[in-house]
Amino acid sequence: MSNAKKIHWVRWLLTLLVLGGAVAGGYYWYERLRDGETNSPYVTATVSRGDVTQVVTATGQLNPVTNVLVGCQISGTIQKLYVDYNSVVTGNQVVAQIEPSTYLANLRQSLADLANTKAQLELAQVNEVRSRQLWESRLIPQSDYDQVVALLHQAQAQVIVKSAAVQRAQTDLDRCTIYSPISGIVIDRKVDVGQTVAASFNAPTLLIIANELRDMQIDANVAEADIGLVTVKQSVNFTVDAHPYQTFHGEVVQIRNAPITVQNVVTYDTVIKVSNDELRLKPGMTANISIVIAEHKNVVRVPNAALRVKMPKEKKMELPPETETREPVSKRRQGMQRQDQPVWRTLYVLPRGADGKLSQKPKPVKVRTSISDGAFTEALEGINEGDEIVTFVKQTSASTMPGGPPSPVSGMRRF
User: Fold this and answer.
1) Do the domain assignments include residue 130?
2) pTM of the model
């Protein structure tokens, strides 16, 4: 290649390098200029409308409405079992049989004793008739006749005693056959064929029968801090681990006044009625419940993060007498007041100028809030839909922070 061509290619290369540098430099300064205009130390959110549902959360266990423990009142060996797990039974259906030979022998012995006593009664009645005739003829003294009458009464009493013994023996024999007290489904079986059960001090449990699994209930433990918000007939949404992507529904039917104290934590048993038509719910499942305390549709709402923002070097603002702020009863329930107990909170709004751009000087405003769902809080007054509110203060430098350098503890401030 000649020298003239080399010089030509070097010139083109230098020209391309100069143009590329100029473009890169222009883009860099453009981005810095744009960042200087648009980079804000605040993260904002737009006030919107939507639904706000305040709930009380708790956990509970799914149980049948009626759970019957089928036991036996006598001791013996299980001879037969007519049902097993998940067997559907009806009322008065035979479900088990205890070996009855001992109780059958007791019944026969009682019947024999009763027959013997009745024979003695017949003899005493004959003796009473004969002795009365002799006494009326003055052939025996009064004392002999009185003794015969007493023997007759004793024989009559013995017949009653032996009759009761027969009834007791018959009852024990009848108890060898175990019947289902209700119609339902067997959810647990405690014994096997050939097993010996002893009913000396308490009745051993043979089976557990639930009346109907299509109607179930949740026994939920609601904390004492939340139980004041719960009332009968409130709707309930809950999930179970077996079906994590499906939400089931129920209704509060009872709030039991008996406190449950575990490690100084007081809860109250809240009974929730549940429909289980598809039989997807099973006894013993753990339910994560949400009791709907209040539900407001299409209301102005603000993110809860905006309620926790504090500005660097923020000065405490005096509230008007009619807007006294009440503190929540606990930090865990902060921002979750009842709908009849609104409070006033401080939010920071970035106003828009005449050109439509957001100002970088936040303006504190007092907002009357109502219920919260944990993510959003309903705003009753003090703010409008479409306003831009501060939800987070980013790390800033003294040169970019509006109003001067930040305080020593400023920077990433979120409470």
Assistant:
1) yes
2) 0.66
